[in-house]
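Example record

One chain of 105 residues, shown exactly as stored in the release files.
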Amino acid sequence: MVRRALNNGPVIQKEKETVAKMIEIYCRRKHHRKELCDECLDLKNYALKRLSYCRFGEEKTACSNCKVHCYKPIYREKIKAVMRYAGVWMLLEHPVFSIRHLLKK
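Predicted structure tokens for this chain:
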């Protein structure tokens, strides 16, 4: 198996920051935790890893627009739930990240 080079460009880094913030909001508000619970930490690590190996790299669109489903089904459901819940809160807590994400769609 040939392993892809890690994507560490500015677009991927912003995506990583955005998804990490969304998972943190979700865990803090849904699980009432100051630090990520094990389940949310696992999801965050998985999401960051998937972004690091995204085949589109710096040309990446929003995952919801992607034709390639690189998440395992269980993680896809978890991240959808996080994004649905945290998306609204992102507008209030991190408006710049929210606007940037909406412009990518």
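Notes: The helical segments are 10-30, 38-52, 73-93, 95-104.
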